[in-house]
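User: Hi! I'm a student and our assignment asks us to look at how structure tokens line up with a sequence. Could you show me two examples?

Assistant: Happy to help. In each example below, the sequence comes first and the structure tokens follow. Example one:
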Amino acid sequence: MVEQKMGDKQLKVYDLFRLAGWNGHTTDEIEAATGLTHQCVSARVNELANWKDDNGNKAPLIERKGIRRETRTGRSADVYVIAGLSEAEKRQAADA
């Protein structure tokens, strides 16, 4: 299981993305929720977005949703969701 290969901080960040569902999170929202520094959260998001499987193949656990939200400082930031959700959302919208 993927979670068993994660460090404590990776798992903490990943769990927040799982709980967020379609809404996702920005790195700033993760920082606010966890109290972790920007550098720490940014590194964990990068690791999750560039995750590799046991064979070294790309197997991202999170991905950009394709939208941006305002941070606490008023800047625009990418929203990330669990990998596969943004594609599912696009298919659902096309079917509607």
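Example two works the same way, sequence first and then tokens:
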Amino acid sequence: MGGLMFLSASTDAQILHKKKKPVNKSTAADNTAEPDKILYQRALEDIRKGRQEVGRLSMQTLINTYPDSEYLAKAKLAIADSYYKEGGSAGLAQAIQGYKDFGIFFPFLPEASYAQLQVANAHYQQIAKPDRDRTEAKLAEEEFQTFLQKYPKDPLAIKAEQRLRNVQEIIAEGDYRIGYFYYVKGDKRAAAARLIALTRRYPLYSKSDKALWMLADIFEKSEHKEVASVYYGQIIKNYPLSPLVPDAKSRLVSYKVPVPQADPKAVAWMTAEQNMPRQKESFVKKPLALVRTAPHAEYVAAARSGAPNLAPEADNTSATDILTPGNRSQLGGSTGAGTGAVVEVVTPGTAGSISGTTSGGEGNANGGNANGGTDGAQPANEGSPPSPGAAGDPKAASTPPAPPAAPDAATNPVNTTTTTGTGGDAKTDATTPPAADATTDATAKPADGSQDNSKGQKESSSKKKKGLRKVVPW
């Protein structure tokens, strides 16, 4: 009995007097020597577990308390990441600003490429359908292009390239729908303006062959078969596996134009695209497409190979096919010298392009323009009004017109400007007096003594309208 009592007493003593664990002096030294590291790790753990506000507060405390810390750049990047994970329009806007600030203050760190890609991804998350506002799609395109131009060898460049193809598919789809609407409506100029810009800038678009076919049909109906043959030739050469190729060949044969050969690179590209696996939407999820705000069908139809267009969109380029003097654009070329149909030839999957100019029924291949500009045509200054007397004479735009002779109130009418239109040019003569039967003396009074010159103004305005109608071929 005594022995058992002694053992129990010793056991209780051991339980009551438990030995304390030895303190790790190195860890204690780290805690006192690197408080910024401890603060950064705790903040990261809060962000990882979804406590975004607590994590950002700790990161901001680190930035304010330890301005010389080695974790300063990482803390700024972590704050932007927390906003990105939080999502929403407000959160993504804060994330974009945070990533841009990181790229400005730390451009030489390895994380700078990641920050640039996250700016593009933040815009990518907010892209709407092609028939909605395309502001975020345009911004995403610019940021992805910047990333691929600055960091072409980055490991994330492959993912960024595919997302850029998706974005350009959405933008091109929006332009295609607008152009198709005007094409069906019968507004040839508006339809061609959209479709020409589309085929030049986005050759990887899934419906580029259909856009080229509509352009060829527009010019064919406008009695410009030399221009239509160029677009039919583009379908055969750059989209050889398209179902529209047989009809395009028959049209060229009817025009007695040589049928071009298919580009081997285009054949290889279209073959790879057709063999590429595509994500198919289930029958259950199809009704949700009506209420879905983010695009899905465009992502599925986007190209999976080929180099996307990395050139920024120029603000001063015109999408019209033929430009005439006097800041007036038209699709049908005039018979005068110096005008012609400018057609941009772009091969899918390549960065370069060839601009072919056709004038008088002949097509000449000029040097390529990588920026998708219009070679051989005058730029359209749509923002500035045309100068007086420069409607059809290109010289009148640079030299001021000669002042007319002093009008005689008794013999010469006040309105001595006549507008005549021949073909595609409108010529203004400020000194030639009008015909006697088509003028009205603005100073003369009618027989009853009342001052009425409305009849003269109506006749003058009707003559101007008739002259302008002759400029437009349809």
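Here is something you could point out in your write-up. The CA atoms of residues 200 and 372 lie 6 Å apart.
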